[in-house]
Amino acid sequence: MMTSRTGGPMTKRKTSSRVRASCRGLTLIELILVMGLLAGIAALSIPKVLGSLEGQYLHDEARRIIAASRYARSEAISSGQAMKLWVRLESCEYGVAQAVDSGDSPSTGRSRTFALSEPLYFTVETPAREKSQQEELTALFQPDGSLAPSSFDRLTIAQNGHYRLSVARVADKPGYEIEDRKRDE
């Protein structure tokens, strides 16, 4: 004879059929309902997550362009020579290089080149007469750190034709900043 923890005799309990049925698990219908609910939640949340990631790629690239412009300004001040931030629209590349007058040799140690990530591309909103002449935009930083008047005012980075983010010239100081993100409808 078996004894319980209290020392008394153990007896078998009779369980009702209802209690035994609830211990078996979930029915097929219950499983299908739960899976359908989870699929519905996933279908609603995945586009928002992907849209957030796309916007993050744009934001990261805009921050890299701003960092490159700050690097160009810093190098212009420290070296005493003009530096330029260049942007090639067709090849989706940008970089920093020493602005060279004819006769001077460029200093390659200060040059940096970057490329946009695959789904991103540059767009520029300019009048029609200027579009054919603008294969490369430049922002020229003078040795005193100021931005030359001929420097570009705005550069827009786009992705998939829907998401856009602009890097625009700051009016009251030499440099650029990120403008608010827009989604084209």
Explain how this protein is built.
It is a single chain. With 185 residues, the chain is α+β, with helices and mostly antiparallel strands. It has one domain: minor pseudopilin epsh fold. It is 34% helix and 24% strand. The chain contains three helices and nine strands; from the N terminus they run H-H-E-E-E-E-H-E-E-E-E-E. The protein has helices at residues 17-22, 28-79, 128-131, and strands at residues 83-88, 93-98, 112-115, 120-123, 136-141, 154-159, 163-169, 176-178, 182-183. The strands form two sheets. Strands 4, 6, 7, 8 and 9 form a five-stranded antiparallel sheet that branches. Strands 3-2-1-5 form a four-stranded antiparallel sheet, covered by helices on one side. A hairpin with a 6-residue loop joins strand 7 and strand 8. The longest helix has 52 residues, at 28-79. The termini are far apart.
Topology:
Layout (H helix, E strand, L loop, with lengths): L16 H6 L5 H52 L3 E6 L4 E6 L13 E4 L4 E4 L4 H4 L4 E6 L12 E6 L3 E7 L6 E3 L3 E2 L2
Antiparallel strand pairs: 1-2, 1-5, 2-3, 4-6, 6-7, 7-8, 7-9
Number of helices: 3
Radius of gyration: 32 Å
| Distance between the ends | 79 Å
The tally of strands reads: 9
CATH class bucket: Alpha Beta
CATH-derived topology: minor pseudopilin epsh fold
| Quaternary | single chain
How many domains comprise the coordinates?
1
The low-pLDDT segments are 102-106
Give a quick set of tags describing it.
minor pseudopilin epsh fold; 4-stranded antiparallel beta sheet; elongated; 185 residues; single chain; alpha+beta; 3 helices; 5-stranded antiparallel beta sheet; 34% helix
